[in-house]
């Protein structure tokens, strides 16, 4: 009985760790896992509250560490390409600048709003994705070294640092370009 439950639990862990199937795509699983991260962003923005969004980033981090570490044990492999929960969980951090720059107080726009305001599309949807993928693939500035951490910590922390660098660069870009003066959501 326990073995049957454990097998079902292992299957559930792997399903989530594989980004609900995105990580099983035979080419560019990390990119497809990152795309699946927009689903997590969508869920976090349902509440239209930046504090819930931030809490979701933190919860996502620790959940990804646990799920990713467990999946590595199940698969008996260190950071296999099919595990993309790290990309899914990290993308909301890379997307933080658009969320905060478009918030009115604690209230954030709903996810669909980021697609419906013409001039903001590139900076709010595409740019966080591209920067995150760039930092995640190249792994500069100490990102690569974090993969040596044990278990799920090594799997997830490098992606979160890549997302943090992406967010910092986006905040800087927004400041330079004057995007911080929110026009579309007033």
Write the layout of secondary structure elements.
Elements: H1 2-17, H2 29-45, H3 50-75, H4 85-94, H5 96-101, H6 121-138, H7 151-177
Helix pairs in contact: 1-3, 2-4, 3-4, 3-7, 4-7, 6-7
Give a quick rundown of the structure.
The protein is mostly helical and 186 residues long. The protein has helices spanning 2-17, 29-45, 50-75, 85-94, 96-101, 121-138, 151-177. It starts with a helix and ends in a 9-residue tail after the last helix.
Characterize the structure shown.
With 186 residues, the protein is mainly alpha-helical. Helix content is 65%, strand content 0%. It is built from seven helices and no strands. The protein has helices at residues 2-17, 29-45, 50-75, 85-94, 96-101, 121-138, 151-177. α3 runs antiparallel to α7. It starts with a helix and ends in a 9-residue tail after the last helix.
């Amino acid at each position: 009985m326990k073995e049957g439950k454990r097998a079902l639990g292992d299957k559930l862990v792997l399903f989530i760790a594989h980004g609900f199937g995105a990580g099983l795509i035979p080419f560019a699983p990390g990119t497809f896992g990152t795309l699946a991260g927009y689903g997590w962003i969508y869920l976090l923005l349902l509440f239209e509250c930046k504090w819930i969004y931030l809490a979701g980033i933190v919860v996502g981090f620790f959940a990804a560490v646990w799920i990713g570490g467990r999946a590595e044990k199940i698969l008996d492999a260190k950071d296999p390409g099919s595990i993309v929960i790290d990309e899914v969980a990290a993308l909301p951090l890379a997307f933080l600048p658009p969320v905060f720059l478009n918030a009115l107080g604690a209230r954030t726009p709903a996810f669909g709003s980021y697609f419906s305001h013409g001039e903001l599309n590139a900076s709010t949807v595409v740019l966080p994705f591209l920067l995150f993928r760039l930092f995640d693939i190249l792994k500069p500035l100490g990102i690569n070294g974090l993969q040596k951490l044990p278990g799920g910590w090594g799997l997830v922390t490098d992606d979160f640092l890549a997302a943090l660098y992406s967010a910092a660069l986006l905040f800087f870009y927004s400041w330079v370009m004057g995007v911080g003066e929110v026009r579309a959501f007033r």
